[in-house]
Write a structure and sequence with these properties.
By secondary structure, this protein is of the alpha/beta class. It is built from 14 helices and 34 strands. The strands form 6 sheets. The protein has an 8-stranded parallel β-barrel, surrounded by 6 helices. Strands 8-30-33-32-31-9-10 form a 7-stranded antiparallel beta sheet. The chain has a 6-stranded antiparallel beta barrel with strand order 16-17-20-19-18-21.
């Protein structure tokens, strides 16, 4: 059951199996979750038993479960990885999301493989190669434009997946080594220290400060809400929400938000269908501003934008609520644009710092021409709130009442049934067919007695059969194929209905067909490059064997296993600080007196004790954050490798 070209899949994250179940109830057609080990979010691991229970729950709705094993692995870890993959397969998992090509050289079960975002899929050639070697789904780079996605889709028949919401890594995914260089914590090994969220000072080539202590590598959060239909038309079929570290409220809210958007699109576009079963009913109003975000951007989907950075703060400041109009000894008065509640989380900016407040008590004083006037009694003494004064703008990053609704039952999902009641030799037979065409039949032995009131007996039977309560089903149609109206005790009909529903759930699970592993193309695909640098993340001998088998001649070791020091790009990013501060030569082109002043390269980026050089590759419009490659940081021994050369970059295979 691979994703078909006419199916649109909403793919949600899950830190835990419990969150995964709620993602499905709130509309996810698939869920991705970390297994016991080898996930790129090492604090989001889950035991096999929990994943197995989530798989069974998901398959009832025809939703799929993907497990992330998207770190690069040392030779000594490959056997453990192989054993874990077999365990996941036996638990019913539908696909693995991976980046280490060494896994393709192992004795694996016939489980689908999806190419992780860390595979850095930005070109037609790379996408085509990965499809040809056996990947069933490709997670495209977040930096791709709609035009580039269209180009890839025109040449590649493998289903394409794209991040539509959540936190953005500033670097091309899989191409960031700054965490490892500074702390020994490798992002490609699942332990990113999030250096991109730190404050930095930017200086030009003459030492002049361009920006002081700003979060210059911190991006706003991805939000493709306005681009969903354009992404569908460009060829995306799986719409991925970021967030395996996010809490239950975030997953419920964002999944429901995109479910409603996709359902509206499906209503208008009957040529497309939902990738899983059931109808989702959301019991609250989703709002992307009310759960964690750093502001919103559609990043590069529609080309380079002026304002993609969250330079002021990497924290969640929430939604602007109002302005302080009076300071009291133990309270503040605020004119707000919305009602408040005790327990609301508030914040304001003091210079470059976000200061948080909890509203222990919120009293409405009345309505004004400008909004509502509220008196807030904070959890801190007024003297402990620096910079708070009349005129301060207050944001709300925790709406207590709205979140309280999400802590309750906030969505349900039902599969439609047609129920038919008929007689058999010993009593009654209840047949069920669902929206997926799955059929089950349940019989009961019962003495039939003619009904005295035919109309009442008919309506009572229909009502009892349609009473599906807290099950996963809803009765779309009830048909009575009886030779005459019968009097039937409600207890007997209720028991028959319960047995039939249980049998149909079992039939749905039995009818589930796990998607098959895609066979590699013949003849064997040739990789589009003849040489690979450390950027290819080759960390074990099996990965080396894979690339040699596919025509690569010279393979450098992964950054994590290097043996030599040197200056290299620690981060390659489409985000450009020259552009952000109007120092790009393309911006200055044609502006009198400006062109000759744009000599900002190299620029310098400083955070604490760490200094980096910024270099700019204007042809592909990329920024390289260059720093020292520091050998011998990781405890695990490196695999044998050809000597590292920082000058070895991808060399395209000649046509």
């Amino acid at each position: 059951m691979s994703l078909l070209d006419h199916e649109l899949e909403l793919l949600a994250p899950a830190k835990t199996a419990e969150i995964g179940r709620e993602a499905i109830l709130h509309g996810a057609d698939a869920v991705y979750i970390g297994g016991p080990a080898f996930g790129a979010r090492h604090n989001a691991s889950n035991p096999i038993e929990d994943i197995s229970s989530l798989v069974e729950f998901a398959h009832r709705y025809r939703s799929r479960i993907f497990v992330t094993m998207n770190t690069i692995m040392h030779d000594s870890e490959l056997d453990l990885a192989r054993k874990q993959i077999w365990q996941l397969y036996e638990a019913g998992v539908d696909a693995l999301i991976i980046q280490d090509m060494g896994l393709l050289e192992l004795d694996l079960p016939p489980i689908q493989l999806h190419a992780s975002t860390q595979c850095d899929i930005r070109t037609v050639e790379k996408a085509k190669f990965l499809g040809d070697v056996g990947f069933s789904q490709l997670v495209l780079a977040r930096e791709l434009t709609l035009d580039k996605i269209r180009q890839i889709r025109a040449e590649v028949d493998t289903p394409l997946e794209y991040f539509v919401h959540g936190a953005l890594c500033v670097a091309f995914s899989g191409q960031c080594y700054i965490s490892h260089a500074d702390t020994g914590r490798s992002a490609n090994r699942g332990d990113c220290s999030q250096a991109c969220r730190l404050p930095y000072t930017l200086s030009d080539n003459q030492g002049r400060v361009v920006a002081f202590e700003k979060h210059l590598l911190s991006m706003k959060d991805n939000d493709q809400s306005a681009n969903l239909e354009a992404l569908v038309d460009a060829g995306i079929r799986s719409f991925k929400i970021e967030g395996r570290y996010k809490d239950m409220c975030y997953v419920k809210n964002i999944t429901a938000h995109y479910r409603l958007l996709l359902d509206e699109l499906l209503e208008r576009r009957p040529e497309f269908a939902r990738a899983a079963s059931g109808r989702t009913r959301v019991l609250f109003t989703p709002d992307v501003d009310k759960t964690f975000h750093r502001g919103h951007t559609d990043y590069f989907a529609n080309g380079r934008q002026d304002d993609i950075g969250a330079f002021d703060s990497p924290k969640y400041v929430g939604v602007e609520l109002g302005t302080v109009v009076r300071m009291g000894g133990d309270h503040i008065d605020v004119i707000t644009n919305a009602p408040m509640a005790n327990g609301d989380g508030l914040n304001y900016m003091n210079k470059r710092t976000t200061v948080g407040i909890q509203a222990n008590k919120a009293e409405k004083l009345g309505d004004t021409e400008d909004g509502q006037r509220w008196r807030i009694f904070p959890n801190e003494q007024m003297a402990a709130l620096p910079g708070l004064k009349v005129g301060t703008v207050i944001h709300r990053n925790r709406d207590h009442q709205w979140e309280a609704a999400l802590h309750k039952k906030s969505s349900d999902r039902h599969v439609g049934l047609q129920l038919t009641l008929a007689e058999n030799e010993t009593g009654l037979r209840l047949s069920i067919i669902d929206e997926d065409g799955i059929v089950s039949t349940t019989e009961t032995a019962i003495a039939l007695q003619p009904a005295q009131n035919a109309e009442q007996a008919d309506s009572g039977l229909r009502a009892s059969l349609a009473k599906l309560g807290n099950t996963m089903f809803v009765a779309d149609h009830v048909e009575l194929k009886l030779s005459q109206p019968w009097f039937l005790p409600s207890s007997a009909i209720n028991a028959l209905r319960r047995d039939a529903v249980a049998a149909h759930e079992a039939a749905r699970l039995a009818a589930w067909q796990r998607p098959e592993r895609k066979a590699p193309a013949e003849p064997r695909a040739i990789y589009p490059d003849t040489q690979l640098s450390y950027l290819a993340n080759v960390y074990n001998e099996k990965a080396r064997e894979f690339y040699h088998k596919h025509g690569v001649q010279l393979i450098a070791a992964a950054y994590e296993s290097h043996e030599e020091a040197g200056e290299v790009p620690l981060m390659i990013t489409k985000h450009c600080l020259r552009f952000s501060f109007n120092l790009c030569p393309k911006q200055a082109k044609g502006v009198q007196g400006v062109q000759g002043q744009v000599k900002a390269e190299p620029m310098t980026l400083v955070s604490g004790d760490h200094t980096y050089t910024l270099r700019f590759d204007c042809k592909p419009c990329e920024m390289h954050v260059v720093g020292a490659m520091k050998p011998g940081i990781l405890n695990s021994p490196p695999p044998s490798a050809v000597p590292y050369s920082p000058l070895v970059f991808h060399r395209k295979r000649p046509n």
